[in-house]
Amino acid sequence: MSSVIPINLYHTNDLHSDLNQWPSAVNYIKKRREFHTRKNETSFYFDLGDHADLVHPITEATKGKGNVELMNEAGVQHATIGNNEGITLKKEELQSLYENATFKVLLANLFDDKGDMPDWALPYDIVETKEGIKIGLLGVTIPFYPFYKGLGWDIKDPYEVLPSILREVRAKADVVVLLSHLGYPQDEEIARQFNEIDVILGAHTHHLLKSSVLVNDTLIAQCGKSSYYVGRVEIWVDKESKKVMKKTGSAVDVSRERPSAETVSLVQQLRQEAEEALDETVAVLPESLSISWSEPSFFADMLTEGLRHWCKADIAMLNSGLILEPLVPGRVTKKDIHRICPHPINPCVVQVKGSVLKETIAAAFTEKMIDLPLKGFGFRGHQLGRMAFSGIEATFGGNSKESVREVFIHGKPIILDETYELATADMFTFGSLYPGLAQSAPKKYFMPETIRDILTYILKKYYPISSHTGN
């Protein structure tokens, strides 16, 4: 009989509450793990974070606890968190998120503002197979510093916390597996710097590695997003010497897998509960609110005005593409607001020079930016859309709708070397959408409020329920 035995790892990442394929992925994992049980083999199932995303009504209504129910039902044994769990939920919501979890959360680089590790997480765990092989599991997540700080968390650099933890884990374990929500480039760098790690199960950047990659003798696996693929890693260990002899990994296409009936039933139950929870009236409209992504829109202007007042800023700008649908006359519920503005995007106030502001406004009116089918930065819409303003007015030169001639701030010509306090969406302050805004400082991010909260605020102000109840 061979002394080399397989350890089977299954992993998912970045579901983002896209539940269309989830029941099929769960069915595949359950079948495979039942197969290993029949063969008397060891198997594990891990999730690498961003399972929850407030874009989905279930996640919005339950603040992620519905996702935890789904993970429990799927048989997840260990998980780490992604930025969607970490920075789109209030601190108290994250504190209670995993209170009913039947799996362990591994997270070595998150602490509260007093320096203590949250009681719902472990830096690492040691599990043992029936043959006595000890597997060290640890987890880290991407450190979005200003956002975690704004929520009252202290997020650490993974490269600072890993050395001491890895020494401790390596001394106790025969095999070391890192659950990472850092992104593929960082996983590669960690593999180069820390040879104590046998396998990195990755997430965040949505890389689909159909065949796992070997970097400095560390196997890196990641399986895209939305559970159209499930990751499978096999680690072959000599049970006498307890040395790793071989490791392979792949992403398995489960798009044609039969859905798990139990998972489908749970999703339906959670949908119904979410419908009921979000059926709360927040405003009553006497007339419809239409939205245009290419022309001026009162709805977009109203939201931008609400942002300026809520942030107590001098001026504000928002893209109309944040509003996905119009609103019809009558009740406006939490469900309606979530449907038309599902983005996990936070308000931000940035100090910006007049010259940068004018340059940004000019860029915003180009067809390229208006029609941009933006992906990422928390944006869940179709196109960026025309920019709306509060406290700002632009005039155009010649026959071109794109050519900004003059910019006025509260009726006065913009002063290029003056600093203005601009309220906007946080997505404009990082990345390459508007480099001038990204480079401007200081910035203040409002956490955990989202643009959806601003929409609720301004709708209540313009169209209060009391004006339609006779009170």
UniProtKB/TrEMBL annotation:
MF GO annotations: 5'-nucleotidase activity; nucleotide binding; UDP-sugar diphosphatase activity
Annotated coiled-coil segments of the chain: none
Ranges where the 5'-Nucleotidase C-terminal domain occurs: 293-427
GO biological process: nucleotide catabolic process
A Pfam family this chain is assigned to: 5_nucleotid_C
Keyword Amino-acid biosynthesis attached: no
One Gene Ontology cellular component annotation held by this UniProt entry: outer membrane-bounded periplasmic space
InterPro entries: 5'-Nucleotdase_C, 5'-Nucleotdase_C_sf, 5_nucleotidase/apyrase, Calcineurin-like_PHP, Metallo-depent_PP-like, Pesterase_YunD
Keyword entries, A-Z: Hydrolase, Nucleotide-binding, Signal
Limits of the Calcineurin-like phosphoesterase domain: 9-207
UniProt keyword Hydrolase, yes or no: yes
Family: Belongs to the 5'-nucleotidase family.
Official protein name in the record: 2',3'-cyclic-nucleotide 2'-phosphodiesterase/5'-or 3'-nucleotidase, 5'-nucleotidase family
Organism: Alteribacillus iranensis
